[in-house]
Each structure stands twice: as structure tokens, then as C-alpha cells.
Design brief:
19% of the residues lie in helices and 33% in strands. The strands form five sheets. Strands 3, 4, 5, 6, 7, 9, 10 and 11 form an eight-stranded mixed β-sheet that branches. The chain has a five-stranded mixed β-sheet with strand order 13-12-15-18-17. A two-stranded antiparallel ribbon has the order 1-2. It is globular.
């Protein structure tokens, strides 16, 4: 394989990847790069692009033509955050839904834009990419290996509350055929999880601790970039391997409330928040956003308009954007539709 200034130029044929992983490099020209791979008998694929720039996926083309165009997914429906320009990293999984074109064997090309923060095209930027596939087409059950990173300085009560909450995460995912294999490790990390959108070297270092795990979660007191959130997935989907933003952030102090001590209800809610944010990591959007105008692109999540109607129709869904609480009790958020389960099980980190 030869890399020429401007784009990825293949001396013979695209890099092969079948039920495994391949790394590619390209250099931007006219603000774009093309990455080509040869897929063989894969059921799903994940592309993770990494650069010192802003990146957005423009298109994905297979042997039978273009299967994804960014213009189709910047609107009211949301399929993948890969089509939106973001700093340092862009991640695309395919197919997302049952109705999406399947992964036919043959040559596939992903085209992406490379820009600065003002979306001005950049030339000469090196883009690193990891492409991973899987052949498992069982959409009923699968296992996700999760590494939970706990800062050494995190208050023991917050640590214990977070660990207790993982049982609820495991329970909720188990309802939908997702088995959680969880390992916990104490690490020399800050108690404030760094900015999950713009990235931070500490996030890359944390992701590098994965040691074979598919998802890395950093439990801190709060999230630097989302101080009012219980968690954030960084991207929808995110990368099941090392990268500049390939970390799930969780905020234990925010979950514990003003007194900083978890009660049983707060443990349950934090566990559901863990399951919710990790589902974003696998590629799921909210069925309806807080503006009650934007929705996911799935056919079987209820459509609604307005707060009351959406709470009635979707309030028990795991991906509803906020918990619905009354006087001391909150509606359990644990449901997923068939299409939502399909998105999760197609993710390459679900084995």
C-alpha cells in the first residue's frame, strides 16, 4: 500500500479485513480523504477516524453503490453522529438498522471531510483509521466487555455507589440479550472526567488501558464538558478500541445528589443512566430529543409531539432523554424496541 499526499492511493487493491481489524492512513487533499477496504463475509463494520482536525463522514460506498450520504442524515431524524463534524474523532458503524443495505463482500470506500473548527477545509492532515468487522448475526444475545475505571482519589462512598449501580446496568441490558462482562480497575485519573467532545490526552490514555475490553467507562465526580449530566458517551456510536475520545464518562457525585450519599433510588437511577449512556456508545439515539422535534431514525419507536405526549409514549424507554419522576419515585427506564435492540447487537463490540 502506498500513501501519497492528497489521499490514500492503493498500489494493488484495498486493504483486506475479514472478521478482524485493519489500520489505515490517509492525508487530506481539498479537505477530504478516502479510505478503502475489502470486506469479506462481514455482518457489520465500524470505522473510527482520528486526526488533529475536525472530521465528518461524507459518504460510504459499497460494491453496489453509495449506501450512506451525509445529506440524508442532517435533519429531524438521526442515524449516526459520524455525519456531524466533530473534533479529533469520527466513528461510523454499518449497517445501523435492518433496513440499511447489508455488507456485501467486496470493496468499500468511506469518504470524510477534514476541516478546522470553522469548517474550513484542511489539506495535508494525516488521518488515522481503524476498521473492525464481525460476522456474528445473532441479534438476540451478545456480550460486551466493559472496563470501569475508578480514580484513586474518588471518594469511597461514591465509588461504592457507582459499583452498586452497575448491577442495575447489568439487569437492564440483560432484558435485551446484552450480557455485561465488567472489570473494575483503580487508576491514577482525575476525579473530573475531561472534556468528552473536544477531547483530552487523558482520554486517549484511559482508552489505552482497555486491555481487550470493548467499552471503557471513566467514573468521576462530574463531567468537565457536561456538568449537569449523569453521563456522556462521547459519540453515537463510539469506538471499541483506542482513540482520542473512545471513553464513556460517568458522574457519580451528580448521581448521588446534594448530600453526596447514594440512597437506593439514586443507585437505581445511576445504573439506568449507565445503561442509557452505554447504549449511546453502541449507536442508539434518544427516540425523541429534548426539543421534541428531533427523533431517531428507527421505525418502531413511537412518534410523539410535546412533553406530555412523549412522556406517555416513551417514558419507560431506556433511551428517553431524562428520567420521569414524581414525589420520590421515578419511572423505571428499561425498555428497548426491536429496532433499538437490533442497533445495539449490530455494534462490533457486541460479541
Amino acid at each position: 500500500m502506498d500513501v501519497w499526499l492528497g489521499t490514500l492511493v492503493l498500489a494493488c487493491r484495498p486493504a483486506p479485513v475479514a472478521s478482524g481489524e485493519v489500520e489505515l492512513q490517509a492525508t487530506s487533499a481539498d479537505g477530504r480523504v478516502e479510505l478503502a477496504v475489502e470486506l469479506d463475509d462481514a455482518t457489520s463494520v465500524l470505522f473510527a477516524l482520528d486526526a488533529d482536525a475536525w472530521i465528518a463522514v461524507d459518504a460510504l460506498e459499497g460494491p453496489d453503490g453509495t449506501v450512506l450520504r451525509w445529506q440524508d442524515w442532517v435533519g429531524e431524524e438521526q442515524l449516526t453522529s459520524a455525519v456531524l463534524a466533530s473534533p479529533a474523532q469520527s466513528v461510523l458503524g454499518w449497517p445501523v438498522r435492518a433496513v440499511d443495505p447489508e455488507l456485501r463482500s467486496g470493496g468499500w470506500t468511506l469518504t470524510a471531510s477534514v476541516t478546522d473548527a470553522d469548517l474550513v477545509p484542511l489539506d495535508g492532515v494525516e488521518v488515522r483509521a481503524v476498521v473492525r468487522t464481525k460476522t456474528d448475526d445473532d441479534l438476540r444475545r451478545g456480550t460486551v466487555r466493559v472496563l470501569l475505571l475508578v480514580p484513586e482519589a474518588l471518594d469511597p462512598a461514591l465509588r461504592d455507589g457507582a459499583l452498586a449501580a452497575t448491577a442495575r446496568w447489568e439487569q437492564v441490558w440483560g432484558r435485551h440479550g446484552l450480557t455485561l462482562e465488567l472489570d473494575t480497575r483503580t487508576a491514577a485519573l482525575d476525579v473530573v472526567v475531561p472534556d468528552l467532545f473536544f477531547g483530552d490526552p487523558a482520554l486517549r490514555d484511559a482508552a489505552a488501558l482497555r486491555d481487550g475490553h470493548d467499552l471503557v467507562a471513566w467514573v468521576g465526580e462530574e463531567l468537565a464538558s457536561f456538568p449537569n449530566a449523569l453521563g456522556n458517551a462521547g459519540a453515537v456510536p463510539n469506538a471499541a478500541f483506542d482513540g482520542p475520545r473512545a471513553v464513556l464518562g460517568l458522574a457519580a457525585l451528580k448521581a448521588a445528589g446534594q448530600d453526596g450519599a447514594f440512597d437506593d433510588e439514586e443507585v437505581r437511577l445511576f445504573g439506568e443512566a449507565m445503561a442509557h449512556e452505554a447504549a449511546h456508545f453502541l449507536g442508539l439515539f434518544h427516540p425523541v430529543e429534548l426539543d421534541f422535534a428531533h427523533t431517531d431514525a428507527l421505525g418502531d419507536t413511537a412518534t410523539c409531539s410535546g412533553r406530555e405526549a412523549c412522556e406517555d409514549a416513551l417514558g419507560g424507554n431506556l433511551l428517553f432523554p431524562y428520567p420521569i419522576c414524581g414525589s420520590g419515585d421515578c419511572v423505571p427506564a428499561e425498555g428497548l424496541t426491536r429496532d433499538q435492540r437490533g442497533v445495539a447487537h449490530r455494534y462490533v463490540g457486541v460479541r
